[in-house]
Amino acid sequence: MFEAVLGDLTGDALASPAVDGRERAAEPGFVLVAGDPAVGFAHVRFLDAHAHLDQLSVRPEHMRQGIGTALVEAAAERAALKGHGSLTLTTYADLPWNAPFYARNGFVEVAADEPRTASQLAISATEEELGLEKHGRRIWMRRVLRAHRTAAELDAWVATLDSPRDVGTLRAVVRRPVPGQREVLEVGHLDVTAGLVGDSWSTRATRHMPEGRPDPDMQLNVMHHGLVQFLAQDPEREQLAGDQLHVDLDLSHANLPAWSELHIGGPDGAVIVVTEVPHNGCGKFIARFGKDAMTFVNGPEGKPRRLRGLCAKVVRPGTVRPGDEVVVVRPPAPAASHVGE
């Protein structure tokens, strides 16, 4: 079909043999097959923030029979059941069986200036290396599988926000053993060197550090549990936020200036300290909770309150559990100036 429109594709990436089905099945995600023998398939990969339709293929003699549409719908349903809030893909903007087909099936083009996740950037880089752009404009498209909170809903929610300032509660401990995976823990162990033991923090590159090393001031991400609940709309999706500690506590700059301590689990428990590194919404946050949510947490209502969360590091090791008290110890106020006395 590509050759009928684009001409001779000898030696072109579009004419290369498809990836073996066993190789596809070995990746995180799933493969759906239509017919027996097979007349089409859909391969969906689970990336670090969402589901991605890596390939949809139907044999030419079986096209225009609704098989492609049925595979897209089945893929979207399966991804939603797995807890994903959106399904993305890359395609040609102007070929009729590419972007126009997906638009009829609920996908919309992702704005070129929208932040991309690391996985999305890698996919785009691979397409560029293969030279796919020479045949036409490549675009990202997204189908929302679960309605995200709107700007109006977020404004209404924040108007009711009333969090404890001095003594809060740890509501969830979430470990990320590898990017894209989550483990909700009944007991977590905080370590001065490792952060949350078993978490992948220490393997994650940081662009602002020499040689991309992990930043020790970003060991832990702490987020307001009430906002996680509101955005996720389902307890099974709360872990997708990507923050290791979810707390019921006022995280605002006014309440927790940098270097405030959070004592978790009593006087002999773990202690973490709030660092100066900002924690901003990103491409993964958009994929999970929508663009309105990212605009909100990075905007005039969310930023001062640190509604996207804060960065912290462990200064005293200890065991933490959901339900533990979180006691705030603020740094001493700077001494008043006596210049001119």
How does this model look, in words?
The chain is of the alpha+beta class. It folds into two domains: 2-144, 3-Layer(aba) Sandwich (Aminopeptidase), CATH 3.40.630; 151-329, M1 Pyruvate Kinase, Domain 3 (Beta Barrel), CATH 2.40.33. 23% of the residues lie in helices and 26% in strands. It has helices at 2-6, 21-26, 67-81, 99-104, 118-130, 151-158, 225-232, 283-289, 291-297, 302-305, and strands at 29-34, 40-46, 51-58, 86-92, 108-109, 138-144, 167-175, 183-185, 188-191, 195-196, 220-224, 245-248, 261-264, 270-274, 310-316, 318-320, 325-329. Strand 3 (51-58), helix 3 and strand 4 form a beta-alpha-beta unit. It comes from Nocardioides baculatus. Pfam families: Acetyltransf_7 (PF13508). This is GNAT family N-acetyltransferase. InterPro entries: Acyl_CoA_acyltransferase (IPR016181), GNAT_dom (IPR000182), MoCF_Sase_C (IPR005302), Pyrv_Knase-like_insert_dom_sf (IPR011037).
What descriptors fit this protein?
single chain; 341 residues; alpha+beta; Aminopeptidase; 2 domains; 7-stranded mixed β-barrel; Pyrv_Knase-like_insert_dom_sf; acyltransferase; transferase; GNAT_dom
Task: Please write out the topology.
Blueprint: H1 2-6, H2 21-26, E1 29-34, E2 40-46, E3 51-58, H3 67-81, E4 86-92, H4 99-104, E5 108-109, H5 118-130, E6 138-144, H6 151-158, E7 167-175, E8 183-185, E9 188-191, E10 195-196, E11 220-224, H7 225-232, E12 245-248, E13 261-264, E14 270-274, H8 283-289, H9 291-297, H10 302-305, E15 310-316, E16 318-320, E17 325-329
Parallel strand pairs: 3-4, 11-12
Antiparallel strand pairs: 1-2, 2-3, 4-6, 5-6, 7-8, 7-12, 7-17, 9-10, 9-16, 11-15, 13-14, 13-17, 14-15
Helix pairs in contact: 8-9
